[in-house]
Amino acid sequence: MGAPVPPAPHPVKPDVAWLTVDAESAGQRLDNFLIRHLKGVPKTHVYRIIRSGEVRVNKGRAAADTRVAAGDVVRVPPVRVSERAPDDKAAAAPAREFPILLEDEHLIAIDKPAGVAVHGGSGVSFGVIEQLRRARHYGQPGGARFLELVHRLDRETSGILLVAKKRSALKHLQDQFRGREIGKTYLALVLGEWPDRLKVIDAPLRKYLVAGGDAEGERRVAVVARDDPEGMRSITLVRVRERLRLPTGEPATLLEVTIKTGRTHQIRVHLASHGHPIVGDAKYGDFERNRQLARLGCKRMFLHAWRLSLLHPASAAPLAFESVPPADWHCAMDARA
User: Fold this and answer.
1) How many C-beta atoms lie closer than 10 Å to residue 97's C-beta?
2) Total H helices, total E strands in the chain
């Protein structure tokens, strides 16, 4: 009897690839650009090669959220191709529709619940976009032809999320985000008594990695000095909306928070840096207080994308959305100070 035949390895694209960004792809995030081109490559691997620096844009290192421009040359290292069909992961996502604030032929404004990722990757099999595509029969005859996220919300954050139904709408809306033309206001419940006089936080933020559950580490963000070469200017406006008392008896403050820049974890880090972390924040919060509140039924991070204002991508008419805080806020907000 012959020796057992070892399983065939995943096929490997053997050579470094050089991809030139065309006009249609201009303005896309680097991670989305690669995911669209590397059919059959798991998203987790796409993020891994970006973090490792093996992906280069015009010979320089680039982050996942880097926007590519027409004519950019993207270096892609040899990558493993999944044995499954490229769309198997999306096909495995359960079909799900989400509460809709507005929908027309150009865009959808979704009211995203807390605890749902906006997309798969980094240990999450699927998110809003994969479930919505599944529900709308994306890419199938008679189904949706184009569905792309316009922006991101943290998994733990609830509230308004935009999805484009046309590439032209995606480009126009992302241009508004990059040009800081979109008004974004959040509700945030923080520990302690936020001082009324503290209305503007203008502090640079820098991304870094800490040891995490995978080889790449876990992404974190910190406030850094103004002369830090890797610091990105970040501006947050804060207004006290209401004084509250948590079920534990401790004071808390409900804030209206408007961001003028859209940095990763900006609100969470800026508020925590002043000694008032968001209630339930598992990365930058008060972990003991979070555990106490979880035992009392408050098991989420209390950050909500409340209001969003923009211009319609086709008509340029002003649009304004508002999302009512969901029912799971009540456990922490019913007890007024």
Assistant:
1) 10
2) 8, 16
Cα–Cα distances in angstroms (integers) from residue 266 to residues 232, 257, 260, in the given order:
11, 11, 10
Query: What is the Cα–Cα distance from 9 to 6, expressed in whole angstroms?
Result: 9
Q: Are 239 and 254 in contact (CB under 8 A)?
A: no
DSSP state of 150: S
- How do 56-57 and 17-20 pair as beta strands? unpaired
Residue of 72, 154, 281, 286 marked catalytic? 154
| pLDDT (tens place) for every residue of the chain, 337 residues total | 444 444 444 444 457 888 888 766 777 889 888 987 887 788 888 888 999 999 999 989 999 889 888 888 999 998 866 544 444 555 578 999 999 999 999 999 999 999 999 988 767 788 999 999 999 998 788 889 899 999 999 999 999 999 999 989 999 999 999 888 999 999 999 999 999 999 999 999 998 877 654 444 578 899 999 999 989 999 999 999 999 999 988 999 999 999 999 899 999 999 999 999 999 999 999 999 999 999 998 999 999 999 999 999 999 999 999 999 998 888 877 655 4
Find the farthest-apart pair of alpha carbons in the chain and give their distance in angstroms, rounded: 82
Annotated active-site residue 154? The verdict is yes
Q: What residue spans of 38-127 are helical by DSSP H?
A: 43-51, 88-92
Q: Give the C-alpha distances (Å, rounded to integers) separating 132 from 168, 213, 268, 311.
A: 20, 28, 28, 24
Whole-angstrom Cα distance, residue 301 to residue 293? 11
Pair of tokens at residue 278: 């968001």
Residue 37 is encoded by which pair of tokens?
Answer: 């081109």
CA distance 333 to 311: 33
d(CA 319, CA 172): 14
Token digits of residue 111: 């009211």
Q: How many CB atoms lie within 10 A of CB 76?
A: 21
Tokens of 149: 């996220």
